[in-house]
Amino acid sequence: MILSLSKALFACLLPMGVLLHAQEDAQLDQQLQSIAAAHQGRVALFAHNLKTGTIASLDPDEAVQTASVIKLGILLDAAEQIRAGKASLQEKLVLTERNQVAGSGVLGQLTAPLTLTLRDTLHLMVVLSDNTATNMAIDRLGLAHINGTLRAAGLKQTVLYKKVYVPAEGPMPADQPKFGLGKTTPREMASIMERIAGCRLSLDGAGALPGDGPLCGAILHMLRQQQDREDLPRYLEALDTSEQGSAIANKTGALDKVRNDVALIATSNGPVVIAAFTWDNADQRWTGDNEAQKTLGKLAQAVVQRWSQDGLNAGAFPWEDPLRIGEQKP
Fold first, then answer.
1. What span, in angstroms and rounded, lies between the C-alpha atoms of 194 and 21?
2. What is the DSSP secondary-structure string of 48-70?
3. In terms of pTM, does the model score above 0.90?
4. Under DSSP, is residue 42 helix (H, G, I), strand (E, B) or coil?
5. Is 50 exceeded by the pLDDT of residue 13?
6. 311-320 pLDDT per residue, tens
7. C-alpha–C-alpha distance, residues 40 and 115, integer Å
């Protein structure tokens, strides 16, 4: 049988401003507030049911540190340059010692020079949050171009300030020292994931290009391979999904006092996007039982249980080409 999602799904994949009129799930808001109140730190969240249009939120317009979730913005700009013919997933990039930095990932530990495709570079930036791969991508795409894409997408509070573990260059906004690598809000970062989920890559409202579906599929493939599953997916997928594929595509970000996660979740009742941020966290341990990571897991669990009583269904979303949503088998 062919799964036919309602037109409401596509109606919900609209520019962010339209969400101002979306229906707020007050009961779910109360649940989320209770979970956040028990957390030793601060919490902000925006959740959007892409099938029904319903939203839930906790301080969704609060400006927060992105940590590595800003890499979703880099993915969006890569997609824009690829569809404009200015870049290609197959093009070659060269790892140099100059771009090797510390922190997460593996490229900083390998012997340079090393040639990778842009696809592989972005893949490492996502699945391992590789900081060196991130800097390679920023060099290729251009910091100014990335921020220009974010502005063209209607994001007024989302900024990538600099490369990872590299001092900021040139005149910087006064708030850069406070936010570090990047700044965003839960609502704005959720909108990036929604663009990818709906394959709405056109920033001027024009129709999709022939290659948009597979391009979105390539990006979603990277996000589904995310290796850090201790945050939003924590209590949603407890079993190995390496063979059948995950029902969650996500990008995490972490600093000592920060744990963030942004996810597209394929539920039995339609796709859901959650963008959740925690900061000023008392628990700064870099272990799997970090309190903030547990809090993120509880928030996602509450959202899914409220909006999809039958839980997750990886097969209910057309991961390889989101534009073919009406053709997806259950």
1. 17
2. EETTT--EEEESTT--EE-GGGG
3. yes
4. strand
5. no
6. 999 999 999 9
7. 44
> What does 259-328 look like in DSSP terms, one character per residue?
EEEEEEEEETTEEEEEEEEEES-S----STT-HHHHHHHHHHHHHHHHH-TT-B-GGGS-TT-GGGGGG-
Q: Kindly report whether the peptide bond that precedes residue 167 is cis, defined as omega within 30 degrees of 0.
A: no
Residue 180 CA to residue 178 CA, distance in Å, equals 6
pLDDT, tens digit, for every residue of 197-208? 999 999 988 889
Rounded Cα distance, 264 and 50, in Å: 10
Q: Which two tokens stand for residue 34?
A: 């209770």
Q: Which residues of 6-44 are buried (b: 16+ CB within 10 A; e: fewer)?
A: eeebeebbbebeebeebeebeebbebbeebbeebebbbb
Please state, in angstroms and rounded to a whole number, the distance separating the CA atoms of residues 36 and 298: 9
Helix (H, G, I), strand (E, B) or coil at 45: strand
Q: Would you state the structure tokens that stand for residue 208, as one six-digit string?
A: 């999709």
